[in-house]
Amino acid sequence: MTFEVVKPGLLTTIQDLGRPGYFHLGIPEGGAMDRAAMRIANMLVGNPEDAAGLEAVFMGPELKFNDDALVAIGGAEMPVLVDGQERDCWSSFTVKAGQTLKFGYLKTGARIYIAIAGGIDTPPALGSRSTYPIGALGGFEGRALAAGDTVPVGQATSAAKERALDRTLLAELPKPVELRVLPGLYWHRLTEGSQKQFFDDEWKVAPEADRMGYRFRGGNPMEFVEREQPFGAGSDPSNIVDGCYSYGSIQIPGGSEPIVLHRDAVSGGGYFTIGAIISADMDLIGQLQPNTPVRFKQVDMQAALSARKERTARLDKIRSALS
Amino acid sequence: MKTRYSYGGDEHIFVEMDEEMSLDAFFKSLAMSNAARDADIEGVREICPANASFQVRYDPEVIAPEDMMAKLKELEEKAINAEKRLETRIIEVPVFYQDPWTHDCVMRFRERHQDPTGTDLDYAARINGYDSVEAFIEAHHSAPWFVSMVGFVSGLPFLYQLVEREKQIEVPKYLKPRTDTPKQTVGYGGCFSCIYSVRGAGGYQMFGITPMTIFDADEEVSYLKDFMVFFRPGDIVKFKPIDRDEYDRIVKEVEEGTYEPRSASVIFDLEDFNGDIEATNAKLMEALNDV
């Protein structure tokens, strides 16, 4: 079966859970920014959790289905319309051949995930269908969807049936938003005052936030521990000899605007990083709209591992509720 | 050299051989990342070697972070005694210096630069003590380079010049990274040259452009049919200055599938190099010129 892209929205890409294994060549893992939402949307239509679906940011696409399909929407809150009739997010519903799926204005969050029973069936690249536009890799011809594209969908499984998620099982967006940070990497380059200030300041998501990195603004500029710059690093105190970047690591070029490296991150570079957002909070970042006030919160490894466990337990609960 | 270990969140361990760049640090990082790969530690998801550091991504549900840290520290001893000798290849990479496309980009992002009144080349030549841009360009292409890291974006090589420390060129990165860089730009930041494999963001100074495709997701380019990424750590590169006509000719040959980069197999031995840089480079060039 297939569907047609009538309007692509702002930036709608095909994503699954990513292509690990090529970061050492500069090809990022990629995949859905909000992995949990992509997994749950897939569960709702009876797909394997790593099936490919669509990720749309801020604005939904308009899609015309050429065949009957079972569809589910997860992630951000956005009115879902099938030929003008409202459907629920976090539930699966049938779209008949010839019907059009479209979306209203974004209410909360930033990214919606559209799963279709059978999963999107474009050719995988390096083991994944995720779109990495910079490398023209994966997705639909290596790019975001455009009007007029006809997208293939695979065979639905026998588990494809209408169902709804009990929303109390979902993690709530914390208010105010707090992102937990494990300091490390080049943390020692900041003065003690700056280390403290970084956590005391209120930051705002900058408009440039994207799949490569989320940029933050509004805090105080960093102060560096004085040193003679090491050979090969470059003269700015924020420069280092180019090294690897961890997913979730926070680089601060020039010491002014922190950038959290996300799913389509560059694999390395010459700006210092002060530590990393814990893995359990990475999904949440993908749901932050520009201008959202954010605080960074210092945690230790123990807290990072407990948060991972909590996240796994929550997904397990959802999995058993939907199976 | 002082090795520093750090956690990068709960999924990564970052190991820095040395704060500063040197071939010794590179070889130690390569040896350690190879040893980590050979050790086949359960829970390791990926090993990323870099210029003077490397990173391991692991699953903390399979192996506890402190256990992974301890295992990597054990490997350090082994790496110190590893042979610093590589069987590799030397490749000639044509470069059109001062080309119109990077020049246009240089001008577009002037407000993010240390010296908004000049060009990246003017600035780099001046702060490195060269009398002219021409003399600076000659220094850039006259001695070979060593690929000390592949990454940033798809298949981008970082290159370290095979000359004495006092002859190394050093420039800062842009004050604020650019949002655009032409594909195949030859850039410079810190002590590294790079070739931007794809169009996109970048913080390096821009010197020129190569007509040679080095990343092809479709694997259609004649010399990228086996794998989409051209460079590997340890490759040796000799830049060859070309003019507009030669640039256009090579672009056409790449498109038509007739271009083959000039390259030869060589052995690079770090001790030989440290013992006599000129003789080692002359031997490398001989291998390339014999092709």
Overview of the structural elements:
The complex is a heterodimer of chains A (about 325) and B (about 290). By secondary structure, chain A is α+β, with helices and mostly antiparallel strands. In chain A, about 15% of the residues lie in helices and about 30% in strands. The longest helix of chain A has 22 residues. Chain A is elongated, with a radius of gyration of 20 Å. The model of chain A has no long low-confidence stretch (mean pLDDT about 95). By secondary structure, chain B is α+β, with helices and mostly antiparallel strands. In chain B, the strands form two sheets. A seven-stranded mixed beta barrel of chain B has the order 5-10-8-9-7-6-11, surrounded by four helices. A four-stranded antiparallel sheet of chain B has the order 1-2-4-3, covered by helices on one side. In chain B, strand 3 and strand 4 form a beta hairpin. The mean pLDDT of chain B is about 95. Classes of the chains: A alpha+beta (about 325), B alpha+beta (about 290).
Number of helices of chain B: 8
| Overall pLDDT of chain B | 96
- Biggest β-sheet of chain B, characterized? 7 strands, mixed, barrel
Q: Strand portion of chain B, in percent?
A: 25-35%
Largest interface: A-B, 55 and 62 residues
Overall helicity of chain A: 10-25%
What number is the mean pLDDT of chain A?
96
Nearest-angstrom radius of gyration of chain B?
A: 20 Å
Q: What is the element string of chain A, with H for helices and E for strands?
A: EEHEEEEEEEEEEHEEEEEEEHEH
Q: Walk across the major sheet of chain A and give the strand order.
A: 12-19-16-17-14-13-20
Assign the structural class of chain B, choosing from mainly alpha, mainly beta, alpha/beta, alpha+beta, or little secondary structure: alpha+beta
Q: How many extended strands of chain B?
A: 12
Number of strands of chain A: 20
Query: What is the percent of helical residues of chain B?
Result: 25-40%
Q: Order of SSEs of chain B, N→C?
A: EEHEEHEHHHEEEEEEHEHH
The secondary-structure class of chain A comes to alpha+beta
Oligomer: heterodimer
Beta percentage of chain A is 25-35%
Low-confidence stretches of chain B: none
Low-confidence stretches of chain A: none
Distance between the termini of chain B: 38 Å
